[in-house]
């Protein structure tokens, strides 16, 4: 609930959100191979906001990375899905393993 409340009223973040959209549209492929820290990449299998290929690209090009798919998860699957708890536990485990 706190997550959703942080997004409203939307007009406070509207300018920044549109800037993010414009900047993101100008990007092609990020040079993620330069990332040197362990990386957990999570993606909902029903995410209509970000292509799964972007997450697969990151996982294939970041050394010491892991792709975790949130089954049936949308763009907010980490917080709101039948598998949110599983995803959250995966993140906790990953960070503990890489402290």
Task: Please explain how this structure is put together.
The protein has four helices and two strands. The protein is α+β, with helices and mostly antiparallel strands. The protein has a single domain (2-97), classed as Rossmann fold (3-Layer(aba) Sandwich). Strands 1-2 form a two-stranded parallel sheet. Helix 3 (52-61) links the parallel strand 1 and strand 2 (65-70). The longest helix is centred in the last third of the chain and has 14 residues, at 84-97. It is globular, with a radius of gyration of 15 Å. The relative contact order is 0.15.
Produce the secondary structure layout.
Blueprint: H1 2-5, H2 14-26, E1 39-44, H3 52-61, E2 65-70, H4 84-97
Parallel strand pairs: 1-2
CATH architecture field: 3-Layer(aba) Sandwich
Name the beta content range: 5-15%
Instruction: Kindly report the average pLDDT value.
Output: 89
Number of helices: 4
Spatial shape: globular
Quickly name the level 1 CATH class.
Alpha Beta
Class derived from helix and strand content: alpha+beta
Helix content: 40-55%
Count of distinct strands: 2
What's the end-to-end separation, in Å? 29 Å
Low-confidence stretches: none
Return the CATH topology: Rossmann fold
């Amino acid at each position: 609930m706190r997550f959703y409340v942080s997004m409203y009223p939307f007009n406070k973040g509207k300018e920044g959100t549109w800037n993010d959209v414009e900047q993101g549209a100008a990007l092609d492929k990020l040079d993620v191979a330069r990332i040197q820290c362990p990386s957990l990449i999570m993606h909902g299998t029903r995410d209509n906001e970000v292509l799964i290929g972007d997450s697969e690209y990151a996982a294939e090009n970041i050394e010491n990375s892991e792709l975790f798919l949130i089954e049936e998860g949308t763009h907010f699957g980490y917080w709101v899905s039948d598998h949110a708890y599983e995803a959250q536990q995966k993140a906790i485990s990953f960070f503990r393993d890489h402290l």
